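TASK: fixed-backbone design
INPUT:
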């Protein structure tokens, strides 16, 4: 279910977990409500602390709409966001394939509309995806999304609420590929959709391409052969007022950006989800590996 910006701002403004910073000098780092967002927010927070800045963590805020509303409302100063999510879910624009064009579009629009600054993007591309087991793929001859489009009526989809309505979700698949009328569509919490797939309650699961479960469970990602999905490069989105007060934030996080790759994110996600490591410890280990 999509939350309106006005409703999200109202939720953030009344949330007990978001008290105003008493000293006003700490950098308040937020995150959305999934593993990769926790880890990357921790990487940002620890990098800023390593540079001598005081940081407050306000993690697990919720959906894109709630995290963005917290940023607009001034309850956080920055959080990690994805270019494709901003393009489609926030700006409601059509998907674009060129990563540089997507970044340029969201950077310009966020600055103009919200006075929010996108810092340098990382190479990490956490794209939308559909995943299945190798056994199911072999049984139904699935390699690409085109293969799945005409066979979806035989299969059960496990997904998350946003995928049902987003332009780059199920409606986009039906528009670009045709078909995609699943035998059943069941909505799960973001952490439970892979369990549904692995326990035989579903045949296909929506995924993000850097999810740790893909390698851990030896899942197959179906190829987006008609290029529906835009790039989803991650970057810090920061309040302009915060950067004006503490410009070092940009230099610290921009220098870190190239090291946050898709492969690094997948390893860190797996460490949290499969090995049950704390996101803060995973982030600290990552930063130790960065020159």
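OUTPUT:
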């Amino acid at each position: 279910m999509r939350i309106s910006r006005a409703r999200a701002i109202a939720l953030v403004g009344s949330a007990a977990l978001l008290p105003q910073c008493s000293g006003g000098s700490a950098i308040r780092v937020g995150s959305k409500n999934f593993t990769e967002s926790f880890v990357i927010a921790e990487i940002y927070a620890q990098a800023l602390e390593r540079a001598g800045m005081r940081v407050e963590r306000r993690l697990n805020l919720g959906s894109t709409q709630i995290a963005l509303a917290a940023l607009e409302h001034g309850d956080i100063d920055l959080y990690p966001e994805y270019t494709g999510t901003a393009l489609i879910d926030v700006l409601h624009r059509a998907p674009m394939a060129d990563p540089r064009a997507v970044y340029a579009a969201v950077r310009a629009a966020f600055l103009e509309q919200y006075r929010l600054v996108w810092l340098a993007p990382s190479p990490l591309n956490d794209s939308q995806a559909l995943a299945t087991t190798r056994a199911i793929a072999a049984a139904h001859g699935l390699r690409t999304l085109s293969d799945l489009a005409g066979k979806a009526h035989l299969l059960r989809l496990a997904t998350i609420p946003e995928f049902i309505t987003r332009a780059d979700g199920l409606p986009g698949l039906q528009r670009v590929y045709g078909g995609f009328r699943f035998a059943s569509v069941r909505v799960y919490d973001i952490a439970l959709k892979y369990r549904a797939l692995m326990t035989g309650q579903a045949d296909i699961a929506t995924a993000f391409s850097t999810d740790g479960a893909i390698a851990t469970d030896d899942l197959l990602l179906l190829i987006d052969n008609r290029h529906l999905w835009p790039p989803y490069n991650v970057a810090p989105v920061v309040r302009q007022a915060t950067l004006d007060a503490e410009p070092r934030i940009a230099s610290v996080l921009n220098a870190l950006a190239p090291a946050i790759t898709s492969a690094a994110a997948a390893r860190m996600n797996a460490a949290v989800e499969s090995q049950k490591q704390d996101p803060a410890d995973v982030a600290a280990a990552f930063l130790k590996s960065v020159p």
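COMMENT: The chain has a mean pLDDT of 91.
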